[in-house]
(2Fe-2S)-binding protein
Amino acid sequence: MQVTMTVNDTEVTREIEGRLLLVHFLRDVLSLTGTHWGCDTSNCGTCVVWMDGEPVKSCTVLAAMADGHEVRTVEGLAQNGELDPIQQGFMQCHGLQCGFCTPGMMMTCRALLDKNPDPTDAEIREAISGQICRCTGYSTIVRSVRWAAVHEAAAAQQEVTA
Ligand code: FES
Ligand code: FES
């Protein structure tokens, strides 16, 4: 079957098998290997991407289901050569160690800040509760999201007063 979708602002059309999962479509067909595949049980969340702006576990979505939709992966987070504040936050606050969970974490946390620009620690922890990090103990991830929230708020304030 043929599918057409927009991935990171670029329209792509490919012939695929109907059973192909979105995570494999992104990684193996489009070579967007920033999206990771970490389990067979829909538990780890390392495969999170956005479909029409909403975080989804791409191992639970058929590529065929993304036909006609807009998909964004971690490769599409940076804009105009600038890292997204959430990426900067993970860098500044050591929100990663091995980095395996990081792409999915960042996609979920970016979506959280888009809806709730000033989340509490509890809200951040709830947002990432469907995702597993084996390394960090989560505290630095929460700190990274807080860093991004604070710096985004400061940047927005600067724009208002400029
Ligand atoms: S690969 Fe583990 S939840 Fe998708
Ligand atoms: S940084 Fe290693 S799994 Fe999260």
